[in-house]
Design goal:
GO terms for molecular function: oxidoreductase activity, acting on the CH-OH group of donors, NAD or NADP as acceptor. With 318 residues, the protein is of the alpha/beta class. It has one domain: Rossmann fold, CATH 3.40.50. The protein is built from eleven helices and 15 strands.
Length: 318
Amino acid sequence: MRVLLTGATSMIGEYTVRELLRRGHEAHVLQRGESDLPVKVFRGDIRDVDAVRSAISGCDVVIHAAAKVGLVGSYEEFFSINVEGTRNIMNAAVEAGCRGVVYVSSPSVSYSRTPVEGEVSPPAIDDVMGHYSRTKSIAEREVIKDNRLHAVALRPHLVWGPGDTQLVGRIVERAQQGRLVLVNSGDAVVDSTYIDNVADALVAAAERIGVQHNLNGRALVVSNGEPRTVASLVESICTASGVAYAPRSVSLRAAVILGAIIETVFKLRPHSEPPLTKFTAYQLGISHWFDISETMNLLDWTPRISLDEGFQRLARGL
């Protein structure tokens, strides 16, 4: 099977390419930057229709992971990459006769200010917070409703592992600087996912899309299936990384108010990442964990690396 993966410079992209190769598939990648991966590389932006067509030509399946993430940027920029870029991928996949697309989405497309506890892949909604979640929600719904080809959306939740500069990197940096703060003492219960498990799930979906027809049009959450409190997760990351765990706590209400103030201030600094927003306050302050039994059943997949083993690997990998 020949698979094109977009966004291979991300941690998810890199691990997924390596898992494709491990399983004997041919992997191509479309990305803007350089790559050390031993695969055919197409240089380009997903907003470039010709670059997308060239990369997808001859491929059986596309795993579309490229996206604009984070908190910095205008809505128009997020929309052009996350929605219009995804439309280019879908159009080119149809033109190339691909048998399917695996879209990398996010659980944040399905909730906002209220807890999610044990639900099975709730639908994407309009009322979500932040440019990233809003545009990913639009794109996911378009992908899974596209009746021109088979498509499935996978929603990896709080992905981490050795070399992670996002979740792990930010926690470690703030712990080292004495700026580690939890919302409501970190009592919210959340899912997280070790990176190898995400790669396994994405490749399992790529192998089945267009062959196993009950995947078509589905949105499936991917996690370790081991919900833990935010405090437990952060403490385990600090311990594995060899930094002191000494957080302060603020209430959810205070965090939301402070996040709103910081967002306003940082609008004057459009290229700087705000340390807190209303979105991140709710992410840290409310529970969000899911029932992944449907994902496991449809993909014939189980998380092979437990959280505790993942923390051990994190300690060895840093």
